[in-house]
Amino acid sequence: MTEPMSATTFSWFITIAVGGLGAAWFVYDAINLARSIKLDRADPIVRDRHFGYVMGMLIGVIGVVGVLLFHGVV
Length: 74
Known about the structure:
The protein has 74 residues and is mostly helical. It has a domain at 21-70. It has two helices and no strands. Helix 1 (7-36) runs antiparallel to helix 2. The longest helix has 30 residues, at 7-36. It starts with 6 loop residues before the first helix and ends with a helix.
């Protein structure tokens, strides 16, 4: 039985998927954070949103850095 793709191809597929998702997640949350910065920070819901956007950006950075570490770039 033949493999559907080689190990190298699978590695690059996962790299593109994880790196792309992490980068997109970071950009999406950064845009949302920038839009919500002007809202009233005394509101607990706004503070929760800011916290969530920062955590989302952190997750995106972890995904991209993980891919870079896997390939020995960093």
